[in-house]
Write a structure and sequence with these properties.
single chain; alpha+beta; Rossmann fold; Dna Ligase, domain 1; D-amino Acid Aminotransferase, Chain A, domain 1; five-stranded parallel β-sheet; 15 helices; globular; binds adenosine-5'-diphosphate
């Protein structure tokens, strides 16, 4: 087991990882920018190292500084959290070259899944269902037209190097295709320095359903069920739940089994999430994230298993603590992402939190790095906390969520809490009847 883990992140996830380390009796080092000297993860860690000025590229993304911090403190492993360097293959390789363990998969697996065309090819080879579309990159208009005619309109053109929903264009007919192809390519070139694009069938009313998987790096793979993250705004997840209100036990076991086997065959190590669009009973792979996800606590709530503990165990060579048959699903969990943003326009609202009071009671978990008097720096993501509620079934979970949202107090800044108070009373949400476009339509109506 590791003696000392360096946490290369900030905010709620740095604290989340720190808690797991403490439980396992592992010493903790955190790194921070000058803007985060007062952050909670810095206060609670055994050691901290200031690695640079506020901009992320000079601090949380500065590989040299982070490696230096490992050497100075004698950390033997790094947990990257999510975002920042968590899916940076070069970072994983550099750590390996310094004999420091990256708590995550190999650089090669990160690389494969970071290239969407390669990822899709790999998924298909491993028996994971994919969205019908081009086999690889498409450059010629003629070829694009042939493929689109074959799979049928509407189609979506996506950037191979894509991320954050950028570089995607929908074409509803052949007449739209030329412009869509050109726009997607130039957007992809400008955003990612790579104008490779590919074509897929555009699914009109899918849900976003993702499967939590784990590999032990030695040919064993398990799944921890799915999460439904269909409530999104601009491709950003807002509300996540497990299990999905749309799946039955048979569908869950089938897609979970397919994913677990794929992970085993790939020889993958650590936590991963295989993301699908789901429509009319069919799953369509869109991408795989090779890290811990923001929404991992809903899976922890229904399985009772600490996924960060598992990540640390696997990375240290101790293997998974559970076999597939040990993983049982219990009740229902919902996570609300609480952002320092205007609840309607979603413009960031940094500033000082004058009062912060979190709800409590049975089935309530709040993961947050903020406190009363904390000044939110304007440089980073606006997520200030996550409310995770568990109940024996979805109805109980929703009742408890409504009560917890009423108790939650964040004064001094704007937050997305009022949005969740509206959503929890909405009939479609109560019925679990929503797709990936539901939230945007709802917000447009409210304006
Ligand atoms: P990114 O990495 O940029 O987030 P993804 O491939 O994960 O790109 O897709 C992001 C979102 O775009 C999906 O959650 C979905 O809302 C939409 N999307 C992607 N592919 C399709 C498709 N074939 N049909 C319909 N919507 C899609």
């Amino acid at each position: 087991m590791f003696q000392k883990i360096l946490i290369a992140n900030r905010g709620e996830i740095a604290l989340r990882v720190l808690r797991a380390c403490k439980e396992l009796g592992i010493q903790t080092v955190v790194v921070h920018s000058t803007a985060d000297a007062d952050a909670m993860h810095v206060r609670l860690a055994d050691e901290s190292v200031c690695i640079g000025p506020p901009p992320s590229r000079d601090s949380y993304l500065n590989i040299h500084q982070i490696v230096a911090a490992c050497e100075i403190t004698g950390a033997d492993a790094v947990h990257p959290g999510y975002g920042f360097l968590s899916e940076n293959a070069k970072f994983a390789d550099i750590l390996a070259a310094h004999n420091i363990t990256f708590i995550g998969p190999s650089g090669d697996h990160i690389r494969i899944m970071g290239d969407k065309i390669e990822a899709k090819r790999t998924a298909k080879r491993l028996g994971i269902p994919v969205v019908p579309g081009s086999d690889g990159a498409v450059t010629e208009e003629k070829e694009a037209k042939r493929i689109a005619a074959e799979i049928g309109y509407p189609v979506i053109i996506k950037a191979s190097a894509g991320g954050g929903g950028r570089g995607m264009k929908v074409a509803h007919s052949e007449a739209d295709l030329e412009v869509a192809l050109q726009t997607a390519r130039s957007e992809a070139g400008a955003a990612f320095g790579d104008d490779a694009v590919y074509i897929e069938k555009y699914l009109e009313k899918p849900r976003h359903i993702e499967v939590q998987v784990f590999g032990d790096g030695a040919g064993r793979g398990v799944h921890f069920g799915e999460r439904d993250c269909s409530l999104q705004r601009r491709h950003q997840k807002v509300w996540e739940e497990a299990p999905s209100p749309a799946l039955n036990a048979e569908e869950r076991a089938r897609i979970g089994g397919t994913c677990a086997k794929a992970i085993a065959d790939l020889g993958y190590s650590g936590a991963g999430t295989i993301e699908f669009l789901y429509e009319n009973g069919e799953f369509y792979f869109i991408e795989m994230n090779t890290r811990l996800q923001v929404e991992h606590p809903v899976t922890e709530a229904i399985t009772g298993i600490d996924l960060v503990h598992e990540q640390i165990r696997v990375a240290s060579g101790g293997g998974l603590s559970v076999r597939q048959e040990d993983i049982k699903f219990n009740g229902h969990a919902i996570e609300c992402r609480i952002n320092a943003e205007d609840p309607r326009t979603f413009t960031p609202s940094p500033g000082t939190i004058t009062h912060f009071h979190t709800p409590g009671g049975l089935g309530i978990r709040v993961d947050s790095g903020v406190y009363s008097g904390y000044k939110i720096p304007p440089y980073y993501d606006s997520l200030i906390g996550k409310l995770i509620v568990h109940g024996r079934n979805r109805v109980e979970c929703m009742m408890r969520l409504r009560r917890a949202l009423d108790e939650f107090v964040v004064d001094g800044i704007k937050t997305t809490l009022p949005l969740f108070r509206d959503l929890v009373g909405n009939a479609d949400i109560a019925n679990g009847d929503y797709d990936i476009h539901w939230l945007e339509k709802y917000l447009a109506k409210e304006e």
